[in-house]
Design brief:
This protein is of the alpha+beta class. Helices cover about 20% and strands about 15% of the residues. Strand 3 and strand 4 form a beta hairpin. About 30% of the residues are buried.
Length: about 190
C-alpha cells in the first residue's frame, strides 16, 4: 500500500504489548470514552452531573486524574454550576457557567482523539452523528498514533531488520520537544 493509514493502539500493541499495558492505565487512554447503552465506561467511578444519568451522556471526557466532564446526548459539553465531577473532592463543581446548556461545542476533540479532522469519515473510524462534536476521528482518546504518527506502514514491515532499512515515515518516532507536546499541552 502506498499511503500510510492509522492502525489504532490495538494494532501497535500487537508488538509493543508492554508499552500498550502502560498506556492502558495512563490518562491519555482515558481522554474520550464513549458511553454505550446508558452504562458508564468500564472502571469509571464518576457520577454524571445535574441529575443526569449515563443514558443522557454520549461521552466521558477525562475522569482519570482531576476532573471528569461530560458530553450530552447531542455531543455538546455539559455546562453549569454542577457540570463536572471533581475526582479530588468527589463532588460536582462548576464548568463554563456562562454557556447555556446544550450549546458548547466540544472544540477540544482534536487533542483528545487520534486523527481528528473537520470533514470526511475514516473507514473503520469513529461513527459520529452528534451535532456538538465537529468533524470525525479515527480513535477515541490519545492513542499511540496521536504522538507517533500513522502506523500502518510500520506495522506491515513486521521485523527489526526491515525497519532498519526503512526510510522516512516508516520509522516510528515521537517529537518530545516543547513544540511537539505543546501542540496539545498548552
Amino acid at each position: 500500500q502506498d499511503e500510510n493509514e492509522y492502525v489504532g493502539s490495538k494494532g501497535c500493541g500487537m508488538c509493543h504489548s508492554a508499552v500498550r499495558k502502560t498506556w492502558d492505565v495512563h490518562g491519555h487512554s482515558k481522554m474520550l470514552r464513549p458511553v454505550l447503552n446508558g452504562q458508564a465506561p468500564q472502571g469509571v467511578d464518576v457520577t454524571p452531573s445535574d441529575g443526569k444519568t449515563w443514558a443522557d451522556i454520549s461521552y466521558l471526557i477525562g475522569g482519570q486524574n482531576v476532573y471528569a466532564r461530560f458530553l450530552d446526548s447531542k455531543g455538546y459539553v455539559v455546562t453549569g454550576p454542577k457540570a463536572q465531577w471533581s475526582l479530588v473532592g468527589k463532588t460536582h463543581t462548576p464548568f463554563k457557567t456562562d454557556s447555556a446548556p446544550g450549546t458548547l461545542k466540544y472544540s477540544c476533540i482534536k487533542c483528545h482523539t487520534v486523527g481528528w479532522r473537520e470533514s470526511g469519515a475514516y473507514d473503520g473510524g469513529v461513527e459520529n452523528a452528534l451535532e456538538g462534536i465537529p468533524g470525525s476521528w479515527f480513535e477515541n482518546s490519545v492513542g499511540c498514533e496521536a504522538c507517533h504518527g500513522m502506523g500502518h506502514q510500520h506495522v506491515i514491515l513486521k521485523d527489526k531488520a526491515n525497519l532498519k532499512k526503512a526510510k522516512g515515515d516508516l520509522k516510528i518516532k515521537v517529537d518530545k520537544s516543547l513544540d511537539g507536546c505543546g501542540t496539545c499541552h498548552k
